[in-house]
Design brief:
Layout (H helix, E strand, L loop, with lengths): L1 E3 L22 E3 L5 E2 L1 E3 L6 E3 L4 E3 L1 E2 L12 H4 E2 L17 E3 L3 E9 L2 E8 L7 E7 L5 E8 L6 E2 L9 E4 L2 E4 L12 E9 L2 E8 L11 E4 L34 E2 L6 E10 L2 E10 L21 H6 L9 E9 L5 E6 L16 E10 L4 E8 L11 E7 L12 E5 L6 E2 L3 E3 L4 E3 L16 H4 L17 E11 L2 E9 L13 E9 L4 E2 L2 E3 L3
Parallel strand pairs: 4-13
Antiparallel strand pairs: 1-36, 2-34, 3-34, 4-9, 5-6, 7-8, 10-11, 11-12, 12-13, 14-15, 15-16, 17-18, 18-19, 19-20, 21-22, 22-23, 23-24, 25-26, 25-35, 26-27, 27-28, 27-29, 30-31, 32-33, 33-34
Amino acid sequence: MTRLLFGTAAAGVLLAAASTVHAGSTFSFVPNSLTESVIEHGPWTLHQSGQHFHHDASGIVPPGSLTPPYNPALYGTPYADYCSASGETTINHGKSVMQPYYFPFVRRRGAVLEGLFDYRPRNEQEATVAAISTDWGATWQFRGKALALNPYCPWDATDPDNLNVNVNGVKTAYGSSSANAGDNGLGHAFVLSVKGRQRIYHLNRADGHIDSDQLVVHPLHRGEEDFSLFGLPEFGYVSPLASGGYPKLEATATATTGLTDPDAILGSVHMGEKTAVVYVSKNLTPGDKNFPATQVCPATPAFALTNLVNKKPRKTNHDVITIRVATTSDGVNFTDVGAATGLNDQTTIALNGIRWLGSGSILRIHDGRFGMFFGAGNCLDNDSDGFHFVGYAETDNPVRGAGDLLKWHVVNGFDNPILSTDTVVDPAGPRSYPLNAPLVNVQGADRLTAAEVAPFVPPGKGYTTNFFSGRVYDPQAVLTDERTVTIVFAGYNTPQPSSNLGDYRSIGRFQLGVQAGYFRPPFVESED
């Protein structure tokens, strides 16, 4: 059975868009709706500002000629207060900037947003955190953590690569050992309900498993207040250490069948006895290594943000992404429908093209078609996660069967984005990337001060002023009322977290005005 997630009576819950929709445009930006999210309680965060619990975890990678421990005054303390003096991991005692969280999965549960977030302190931990929001994603309240990777403390809080961890008082190779986990656990959470049973799906990031294994599956259980992590294992692996069995998964984990190199699920559509999913298929081997040279990205150009921040180009990325559609009748076994067209071009090397589309979500349009909010990128970043801008696409036709999810067209692409990383300019043109200002066009959107992220220094005027200046992706679209869509997304201040270890993996939100009734509430399966 199906039911409406909410009705038109909810139209006044928050507000109508404060500005009219521009002629010829689907969306308008709701003024002052962009904010960097905060979370109340939960695991350790990069920054805390309470009277009794204050720290700023920040840092930059020291020169290769040095070895840890490093001078905090020069290179920061990336894991400041991650563990207590007694060797226990600490918690977030109040409201703090939501770092290091990213890759959100967000859904509406009545008047509340429920979010499942990828919690990932660099080279140390990965876990799934559940939180709820009653203000449309600006503030989140912690509700649980599960399927974590690492119970250990960093051996040296000044070491940005976390080369060693403390295992029962023994200095144990961690970041320095390719056999151990680092921060490669279970990520990209997605919840799917099929025939009344909810399951949570994850990408297995372990070397040799990422983007080749099927997705990891766990059943979800009803618990207190019905929020989603109740009953899941505390840890997702038997150990984060090869000597302890890594990358063996804990005993209750199962796996999907029938998906092709799955990386992340973008959305689902219930179709009677079957449910269709749209997902990211990422091929690492052989990737594009058999493509003609004219279809392979060169190193990033000198004007790319990654070059400006890191003072060097980012090398070629050979990953190949296909957006695929599959159906399931049981939530575990999937049947391939095919590759979607119109969203990305695997062969483009154009700096305003869409080579990699790696994250996003879908909404139902009033006429039966579907819209997709997505994160994407190209050779300007050389990263298949696709984090240069947030765009939007729609299916060509109303979706009556899974095959109708195969044909799309992009409405907001690289040069007319909804949200973007910092604009860069090719001096040879000159030519700006993106060519036009994003719909959500701001500077200075960052809760953190220069002192809190020191010793990081921005690369120049106009760069890295936003918490999403370096990366922006995984837009989770929620229909707030008939005129408003709320977008919860992930951002980094710099393209790579190692450049600014005090300002990475952040959650933010903004709102878009839409024509009244353009989007419709999703039909979801009854959980009764």
